[in-house]
């Protein structure tokens, strides 16, 4: 501890000196080492075996979660709603994982809820007492909400890579993610009104905060019209659009590799505080981050990062401990 304080003191003194630290200002391309890491051959992730999902390792500290029912257009069946919770709870506890890419296998991202598989639960609940059926349905809806809230609660950044259609529950899913990329042929559709119900697992709560345009949200939710990729980009639903699925995934994996090369303490703390700030007034959010950083500022990751910057080393060369 004494040695650590001495190093910190030395770094602070050197930081105060009028020297160039070698920081790059403004946007820059991903480093070649990160790009190479993003193209590493995928391998099955241990402890992740599912019916509706496929989880693979996509380079150091990056997991790739695929919706894996391509013959059913990745429709969300009963297994999906259960397995997403299991999957992302495991990822949240995985100290080696620092970023996640979420995509869909096959020709489209997802067609939304699998009505054929889910009909018995949603449309034909047992019993004839209205109060008891209502309690059953409320519990069911709450559990389904957790399927997407678990992504938001996972401290690891989640990047949604959307190609083709993202329909109904797909919009609930991607709005719970931290970053969204899509292909030029992608479209987003809040489909629920077309099947006679209001979206109830996240879209109506998160989409207004994602795009910041209540009028547009209302239009999409009231009409179930398609939002094409160019409109999704201009509205802020996605941050980048790519020509095809291959380019999309290359970019998503490169971004995940870039994120995972940073201090996991810094990145995960940032996600926690961004989400808290979204849902609270500025003064409370400032107080929260002050309380948060009263402990996080003591991490060795700061010493390592600042020392590498002062010595003009590639920041990607730093080895951070698992978190």
Report on the structure:
- The chain has helices at residues 2-16, 32-38, 78-93, 115-123, 130-153, 169-175, 203-211, 214-223, 229-235, 245-260, 264-279, 282-296, 300-310, and strands at residues 43-44, 53-57, 62-67, 99-104, 158-162, 165-167, 179-183, 187-189, 226-228, 240-242.
- 50% of the residues lie in helices and 13% in strands.
- The strands form two sheets. Strands 1-2-3-4-5-7-10 form a seven-stranded mixed β-sheet, with helices on both faces. Strands 6-8-9 form a three-stranded mixed β-sheet.
- With 323 residues, it is α/β, with parallel strands linked by helices.
- The two termini are 20 Å apart.
- The protein contains 13 helices and ten strands.
Short note summarizing the structure:
The chain is an alpha/beta fold and 323 residues long. The chain has helices at residues 2-16, 32-38, 78-93, 115-123, 130-153, 169-175, 203-211, 214-223, 229-235, 245-260, 264-279, 282-296, 300-310; strands at 43-44, 53-57, 62-67, 99-104, 158-162, 165-167, 179-183, 187-189, 226-228, 240-242. Strands 1-2-3-4-5-7-10 form a seven-stranded mixed sheet, with helices on both faces. The protein has a three-stranded mixed sheet with strand order 6-8-9.
């Amino acid at each position: 501890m004494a040695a650590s304080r001495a190093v910190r003191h030395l770094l602070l003194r050197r930081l105060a000196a009028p020297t160039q630290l070698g920081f790059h200002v403004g946007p820059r391309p991903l480093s070649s080492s990160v790009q190479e890491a993003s193209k590493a051959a995928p391998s099955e992730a241990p402890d992740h075996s599912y019916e509706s999902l496929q989880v693979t390792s996509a380079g150091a500290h990056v997991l790739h979660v695929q919706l894996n029912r391509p013959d059913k257009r990745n429709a969300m069946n009963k297994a999906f709603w259960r397995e997403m919770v299991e999957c992302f709870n495991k990822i949240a506890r995985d100290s080696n994982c620092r970023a996640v890419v979420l995509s869909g296998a096959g020709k489209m991202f997802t067609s939304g809820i699998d009505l054929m598989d889910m009909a018995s639960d949603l449309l034909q609940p047992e019993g004839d007492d209205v109060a008891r059926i209502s309690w059953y349905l409320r519990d069911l809806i709450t559990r389904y909400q957790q399927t997407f809230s678990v992504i938001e609660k996972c401290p690891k950044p989640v990047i949604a890579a959307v190609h083709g259609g993202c329909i109904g529950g797909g919009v609930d899913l991607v709005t719970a993610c931290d970053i969204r990329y899509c292909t030029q042929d992608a479209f987003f559709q809040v489909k629920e009104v077309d099947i006679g119900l209001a979206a109830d697992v996240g879209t109506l709560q998160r989409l207004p905060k994602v795009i910041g345009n209540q009028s547009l949200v209302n239009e999409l939710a009231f009409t179930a019209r398609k939002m094409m990729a160019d409109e999704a980009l201009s509205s802020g639903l996605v941050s980048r659009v790519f020509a095809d699925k291959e380019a999309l995934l290359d970019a998503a994996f490169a971004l995940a590799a870039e994120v995972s090369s940073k201090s996991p303490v810094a990145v995960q703390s940032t996600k926690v505080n961004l989400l808290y700030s979204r849902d609270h007034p500025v003064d409370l959010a400032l107080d929260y981050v002050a309380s948060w950083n009263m402990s996080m500022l003591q991490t060795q990751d700061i010493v390592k990062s600042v020392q590498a910057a002062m010595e003009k080393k590639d920041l990607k060369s730093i080895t951070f401990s698992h978190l």
